[in-house]
Amino acid sequence: MTNNRLFGALRMLPVYGLFLIIVYPLFYMVFNSLRTTREIMMQPSGLWSSSGPQWSNYAEAFVIGKVSVYFANSAFVTISSLVITLAVVTLAAYSLGKWKPPGHSVLFVGFLATLMITGEMTTIPIFLMLRDLDLLNSHPGLILAYVGGGIGMAIYLIRNFVLSLPKELDEAARIDGAGYMRVFWSIDLPLIVPVLAVVAIMSFVGVWSEFFWALITITDDKLKTLPLGLLNFQSQYNTNYGVLLAGLTIVTLPSLLVYLFFSRYFIEGMTAGAVKG
């Protein structure tokens, strides 16, 4: 028994090592965001401040560094993109998996085909489309680009999950007089919450940290999102490491919090997708 426990502990050593490699930079960033630049320069590997936590770093980042403006822009763009994406892909994937309208196979193959096309191939056409629609340098244009870029994978995941749902529940509801939308809203939608959580996390992290489309479409400083705004922030605070790390922490924490909040649904969705196909 002792040998088995020892073998099990040794087998987990690579996992613990990988965990430390991933987590330590996050702890380093958070703790050093509460230190002065002098303390960081004198003791780069230290995680404590001899003068106490420097909460003023966050205040300076939010107010003087305009992180509050960039944060509000990112929150609006990300939440809007997430809501529109979930609404569109849920109805589209459900109809392809349950209702199967004429030509549904062709439509599904078309959505799958978008996964084979790299972003570099669609950059110029989408940019020209946004220009012709007069949506450059605007949040609606940025949201449209984000929504269009995340539909293919989301429909693939949700449609496969919908196909695994038991048909008996739908048939029982139909016998009781429920219409198609009633069955979708009351019966099937609660069952696909796990896979919706997977799509929500993937979409949130992708949009929140996206930089390229924000760079080529947004020029007004008041409309910039966090990843783009941090370019100006970094040039302004390239020698004030405490404030700079505070800004990076502000960018990172929302993604971590969203994952922690949806982690149970995320794991359920990934497991169900792996088992049911």
UniProtKB/TrEMBL annotation:
Membrane-crossing residue ranges in chain numbering: 12-31, 70-94, 106-130, 142-162, 183-205, 241-262
Ranges for domain ABC transmembrane type-1: 71-262
Subcellular location per the Swiss-Prot or TrEMBL entry: Cell membrane
GO cellular component, one term: plasma membrane
Pfam families: BPD_transp_1
One GO biological process term: transmembrane transport
UniProtKB keywords: Cell membrane, Membrane, Transmembrane, Transmembrane helix, Transport
Main location: membrane
Entries under SUPFAM superfamilies matching the protein: MetI-like
Membrane-related topology note: Multi-pass membrane protein
Family statement: Belongs to the binding-protein-dependent transport system permease family.
The protein, known as: ABC transporter permease
